[in-house]
Amino acid sequence: MENFTLIISRSLSKKRTPLFTFLLVFIFSSFTVYADFGPGVDTDGDGVFDHVDIDDDNDGIIDTVEGNGDFDKDGIPNSLDIDSDNDGILDNVEAQLSVGYIAPSGIDSDGNGLDDAYEETPGSCGGLTPIDTDGDTRKDYLDIDSDNDGILDNVEAQPTNEFTAPCGMDSAPKNGLDDHYEDYCGTGQGITPVDTDGDSLPDFRDIDSDDDGIIDNIEAQNTDDYIAPKGKDANCDGLDDAYQSCPGLGLTPVDTDGDKKPDFRDIDSDNDGIIDNIEAQGGNAIVHPCTFDTDGNGLDDAYETTPGSGEGIIPTNSDSDSNPDFRDIDADNDGIPDNVEGQTTDGYIAPSGNDSDMDGLDDAYEGSGDEGITPNNHDGEDTPDYIDLDSDNDSVPDNNEGNDFNFDGEPDQTFTGVDTDGDGLDDGYEGSDVNDGFDVNDEINDPANDLPDTDGTEDVNYRDLDDDGDGINTPDEDADGDGDPTNDDTDGDGTPDYLDPTDDRKDTDGDGVPDAVDLDDDNDGILDTVEDPNLDNDNDPLTDPLDTDGDGIPNHLDIDADNDGIPDNVEGQTTDGYIAPSGNDSDMDGLDDAYEGSGDEGITPNNHDGEDTPDYIDLDSDNDSVPDNNEGNDFNFDGEPDQTFTGVDTDGDGLDDGYEGSDVNDGFDVNDEINDPANDLPDTDGTEDVNYRDLDDDGDGINTPDEDADGDGDPTNDDTDGDGTPDYLDPTDDRKDTDGDGVPDAVDLDDDNDGILDTVEDPNLDNDNDPLTDPLDTDGDGIPNHLDIDADNDGIPDNVEGQTTDGYIAPSGNDSDMDGLDDAYEGSGDEGITPNNHDGEDTPDYIDLDSDNDSVPDNNEGNDFNFDGEPDQTFTGVDTDGDGLDDGYEGSDVNDGFDVNDEINDPANDLPDTDGTEDVNYRDLDDDGDGINTPDEDADGNGDPTNDDTDGDGTPDYLDPTDDRKDTDGDGVPDAVDLDDDNDGILDTVEDPNLDNDNDPLTDPLDTDGDGIPNHLDIDADNDGIPDNVEGQTTDGYIAPSGNDSDMDGLDDAYEGSGDEGITPNNHDGEDTPDYIDLDSDNDSVPDNNEGNDFNFDGEPDQTFTGVDTDGDGLDDGYEGSDVNDGFDVNDEINDPANDLPDTDGTEDVNYRDLDDDGDGINTPDEDADGDGDPTNDDTDGDGTPDYLDPTDNTPGTDTDGDGVPDTVDLDDDNDGILDTVEDENIDGDNDPLTNPADTDGDGIPNHLDIDADDDGIPDNVEAQTTAGYIAPNNDDAATYLANDGVNSAYLGGLTPNNHDGEDTPDYIDLDSDNDSVPDNNEGNDFDFDGVPDQQYTTIDTDGDGLDDGYEGSDVNDGFDVNDEINDPANDLPDTDGTEDVNYRDLDDDGDGINTPDEDADGDGDPTNDDTDGDGTPDYLDNMDDSTPDEDAVVVMQMVTPNSDGKNDFLWIDNVDLVPNNSLKIYNRWGIAIFEANGYNNINNVFDGKSKGRSTVRAGEVLPSGVYYYIFNYEQNGKDNTDSGYLYVSK
Q1: What is the domain-level CATH number for residue 1487?
Q2: Is it the case that residue 744 has pLDDT exceeding 90?
Q3: CA quadruple 1226, 1227, 1232, 1236: dihedral positive or negative?
Q4: Predicted local distance difference test score (pLDDT) of residue 1243
Q5: pLDDT value of position 1059
Q6: How far apart are CA 880 and CA 893, in angstroms?
Q7: How far is it, in rounded angstroms, from Cα 61 to Cα 127?
Q8: How far is CA 1411 from CA 1389, 1415, 1418, 1425, in A?
Q9: How close are the terminal C-alpha atoms of the chain, in Å?
């Protein structure tokens, strides 16, 4: 029995105690406890004595975890203390996650003292694994600040308004829990932790208890005095040293608004109705909670950089005072409380002063649930009003407008810099009481009436863009333009203009509407906002306006903004749709009623030419090269304006005096007497429009710019007929007509009458859409294409070349609409000929020197009538009639003018056509119709087919269908048109890779074997002796040539497919190239020229290369059949490759396509015994047949495990069931265990050949499988092994090696498979359980199987006995406790509930040398290493199940018969006795779960299930004893 002195009075009663009192008690209290740790003690009263009870205090944490320390220094060891850190929260609660908490069941089936709720299965002895919320290595049940926020768990676990400080007492029966947290002493309820934000994470584990995004550590402290955590905990109590000013003190949480809800639990810390989450983030880019908390720390993921980083929101302090916004009732220091600015004026709701749900948010702002005020943003820009210094964006700050009650432009209440009550509202703005605390609306209960409002309309001044309601926005009343409207008082009456609706203002156009509010300051009908381009982006024409004509008068004040003498009012509208001003302005907005439209529309400025700018600021509105100030003022049509610019503007309206009417000082006469522009302005032709908007002023069909005869860009100085009227105003002047059709070129659509429009013949290089300027001259003869009837000088008129030969239409000679285009080519209307492009490349035929792209120019083919390759008509360089057609090509009359088809009325018959098919020669790719295109008849390859005459008959080949041509394969189809020149069935286009990109195998062809014969002419393109026709096809699918070619295209009918398909070359190995050009088609290291010619299977070809090819077919004479001069015999008598070519095994394929030529299951490359890369020289059994062709060679190579399957093909070389590919780490990346294999135990035997790869004496076959699921190998014969590739039939597919401890490596290469500090070679070989292995490593391995002789069974030379007689590991290997698993896989070898590493008494890391009771058996193998309990001990069993099953039907007390002088009392949770008895005897005086005392349950009825408290007094050996504790009644 030990006593501990109590310093403070025991008489402290259970009552609510202020927080500071709690802190003092918590810090300075010590306790008096009485502890008896003898062998008969049962602390938790569960019927299991402490010395065998693995959980003495029944908190679910096993004693070995809790240890014997006394963390809270209350005199009760942690293992007996149900509240080890004295925070009022039970260890059972703190040790578990809040979500998924498991309450104790009250049942202990296996009697080990651990509640079944905390064991996976009864007896597994797991217990709770205590959690560590803040990761400070101090488990929560030993951590007084589990979430590391500086606030003690005892504080966070309780409601603020019901906080109970600890009393410092723990009365008998002592359980380690402060009496203040128990209904009655010993009942052990503890605090039920509070979860403020309902996120399933109680506050003491939640770093953001109110879910506002601001972490508790910040909210719990004053802003100015904030102390950051140090990250150190010197006394290891779980509380950061920064908060250890007194041991265990912690933070005293701040309550800013004094609502008894500390800030860390208050979602509106300053009570202004705007929730902290919003205020802490500032006005913009609010990040709302995502509602996810991935790391479970209580802080919403939205406020962490990554889950677990725990930053939270860094609170905004908009006004930079001592209070961040969430603690500041005036966050922008403008004197208007946030509660007022946060709401609209009309919708304002004052705080109710109530907070029903005690979350810190006034009920008035709860909404549907914790909504709070959504901050109003009156101007819709920048930030919400409560942090916006100018809420209406009117240039007058809120601290002025919200405090200027006498409307003089100066605030009556100003900022002092003093805040007496610290609420964030400056004393200068406080009401009658500057120390009223958090009076969040500061007596402003009706903002609409309590705040300044000059005009009484719209809103109060700080939210009114037009404070005085005069229709002029406050920023526009800044007369001096300094950005401050408060200092502008136009009428000097002491009231600034923005607050004075009657101040005087400028009115430019004198319409009675001041410019500041006048939509049209110059009354021209065009809105000021249109006339000002808003260069300064302020949407105000009064600032930085545009002045187009640079006369010093901005456009919006100028009635002639471009100074052309035509008023903007006139130019702004169309001539026909012109509306004169009415002179009325009904709505007094400054815009004449005539232009109101549907409402303040104004004139939409006309842009006549659709380019650059509208007419009213366009100096040439019709883009005709004559400026508006000329055309609009030239009334006598002489090309000179009658009214000109003077530079004087008497009335300042922007219209120069030179253009004014009768009165130069008539003010803003916006149309200057032009009431009918159509008649009041010059109009030469009276059509289309007045001259300044008419592109053809004189109506002669020639646009004004085209009447600029001298081309100087000024049509006003051009008078062709010298009559004093410039051409553009004179419809009768003379003009040029090139083709003499009576239509001047200026308006002629087809100046040369060839049917091709001038706009087509001119590429418009100068972008003026005018063929008359900078035209194209393709043939360089000085005559532009649009005036040239033979634009490419080839002797064929453009009219002919422009059309197809068959569709040719001759000109009619008529032009009904006199537009210069012959009626024959009008189409649906002025269409003209669409030039033909016969070859579909480069340019149309009429400017293409070779229209059919056949290498013979048009000037030859179109003029060679005797078909000798020379033109009969040639170019002379003379053009008598100047029509562009050279005299050499003219017909009978060289001076016939524009005879556009030059007597070619029927091109199909009038022009040369050798074959009379397809088209005339200049458009025929095969002129002679022999099936060979003209370019392919260029025999000498010089690019000119005209000089090639193969048969010497005087007619070049391209015009001679009967010339001789090369036919390589002699099939009657010339190579030039033969699809398969060598008749091997593979198309020439396949055999030629088209390196020269001309798609012609005849030029620059491929020659794979370098024999001088290109592949497409070579029947054996790789010189391997196997014809391409055979190699190009699969062996099984081979089709011999038919010898027929029905369509005479050179491709044998057998290979036509659906049409000219040919053979698709086979690629047997799927690599590199197709077989017909692959020297080793099966990639087996033996070349095709060997395998395809080795008929006696000796590894040497019977037919070899000679270098001679008598018949020139590409197949060497050495490989030819009976006739070396048989020509293109494309399969060389191989009609059945499957039988005609060597095939050793007769399976799979013939040898040159068989990877395993002899069919012995070993691929040919693997039969290269000497490893020199050549299998042909390896003959293991010396029988003259190399191994790769010999399925019966006597020594098939090494067979390590002797199962009849050589290692080279054996998937499991050591027969242990683990595949070689698993046992080899493949360090060399070749996927071959035979090379560079792993050797874990370093015994020189690689793992895949070693049946004990870690040398621990337990065979890999055993370690690779679980003990319970072990399967022994089957007794397979050689045939079975061979069929299964060397894998025992018990393990088909291979074993997946077991990794028992789930760490490092699988058991078969793990020296300690259960990670219990005792190696496998000990635990697997210690049969007498003395901690020393009975079989030990000797370094000798007689049979070389990798299992050391020391571990072998009865026969050390038994070869590959892969389980070494261990057929049943569960029984054949040591297992001390017979539970869980055998010892080498059992973390608790002796089953005493203590893991082997924890039985290392001397702490040297080796449990084998620890024998506490000295009985010769180390503790980890001895479940009775401690002394046994006293046989006479009296023990109350603490469990009653009154269900008549014969088990625990009444309360059993061991040895009660030895202590007849006894008494038993049992109490319920309220301290009421429900059972009392003297002389309890386990016979007829027993507690059977029924009430026998005063109770809520009537006597004789079974009590409710639950925990009850007992006190058992008895006399034994002359001493009085008391046993007390809990018992559990369960129905």
Answers
A1: 2.60.40
A2: no
A3: negative
A4: 92
A5: 92
A6: 10
A7: 5
A8: 14, 7, 4, 7
A9: 37
Cα dihedral 481/485/491/492 (nearest 10): -110
Helix locations, 321-430, DSSP H: 338-341, 398-401
Residues 1423 and 1394: their CA atoms lie apart, in Å, by 9
Q: Please determine, for residue 6, whether its predicted confidence score (pLDDT) is greater than 50.
A: no
Which SS3 state, helix, strand or coil, does residue 1248 take?
A: helix
Residue 985 neighbours by CB under 8 Å, 6+ apart: 1028, 1029, 1032, 1033, 1041, 1051, 1052, 1054, 1055, 1062, 1063, 1130
Q: Are residues 800 and 899 in the same domain?
A: yes
Whole-prediction pTM value? 0.39
DSSP state of 2: B
Task: Kindly state whether residues 1079 and 1212 are assigned to the same domain.
Answer: no
- The count of domains in the chain is 4
Percent of the chain at pLDDT exceeding 90: 45
Mean pLDDT of 557-564: 94
List alpha helices for 1357-1466, DSSP H: 1369-1372
Q: Provide the pLDDT for residue 1523.
A: 92
Quick one: average pLDDT of 313-332?
83
Q: Residue 1499 is encoded by which pair of tokens?
A: 């006597």
pLDDT score of 248: 47
Residue 255 has pLDDT above 90, yes or no: no
Under DSSP, is residue 528 helix (H, G, I), strand (E, B) or coil? helix
In this structure, are 1141 and 1064 located in the same domain? yes
Look at residue 1255 and tell me if it is in a domain.
yes
Cβ neighbours of residue 1296 under 8 Å, at least 6 residues apart?
none
- Among residues 885, 907, 929, the one where a domain terminates is 907
Assess whether 1367 and 1444 both reside in one domain: no
Instruction: Enter the tokens of residue 89.
Output: 């929260």
d(CA 1503, CA 44): 21
CA angle 10, 15, 17 (to 5 degrees): 95
- The tally of CA atoms less than 13 A away on the side-chain side of residue 27 is 14
Q: CB within 8 A of 983, min separation 6: which ones?
A: 969, 971, 1019, 1041, 1050, 1052, 1128, 1130
Cα 1432 from Cα 1430, distance rounded (Å)? 5
Give the model's pLDDT for residue 31: 28
User: What letter does residue 278 receive in the DSSP assignment?
Assistant: H
**CA quadruple 987, 990, 995, 996: dihedral sign:** positive
Report yes or no: 463 and 391 within 8 Å, Cβ to Cβ: yes
